[in-house]
Amino acid sequence: xxxxxxxxxxxxxxxxxxxxxxxxxxxxxxxxxxxxxxxxxxxxxxxxxxxxxxxxxxxxxxxxxxxxxxxxxxxxxxxxxxxxxxxxxxxxxxxxxxxxxxxxxxxxxxxxxxxxxxxxxxxxxxxxxxxxxxxxxxxxxxxxxxxxxxxxxxxxxxx
Length: 159
Hints:
Largest sheet: none
Number of helices: 5
Oligomer: single chain
Helix content: 25-40%
Distance between the termini: 78 Å
Number of strands: 0
Strand content: under 5%
Order of helices and strands: HHHHH
């Protein structure tokens, strides 16, 4: 894929690493349907979305597949564990080539499982306080919902 159609999206050799990890497409027992999209195109479209950070609906038409096809296949491959195995395979290859440096590593706390909280514990009641209904209550004297503003006097009411 590095020298092929999608070389601008997929780095050299990545398709060869990913190809054996991708599960085969399901064949419809009744036959018919549309022709299956090549995995090479799907890999390129999915990697484009993941690397660029664009939304699935912004997938460029140059890939020749719909956004729903790319997203559906991404979900199928995610459930099959393709991306985790691909990551491990790349790490193994980098380690074998002595190009992996783990002297500095970062653990993202988003991947650490949080313990379940006791659902019966509730936050203490803080009570209900009266809040002004408009943002200008502190400066206006004619706002009826203001507790902070002073009551109108004959001098201020005539203004």
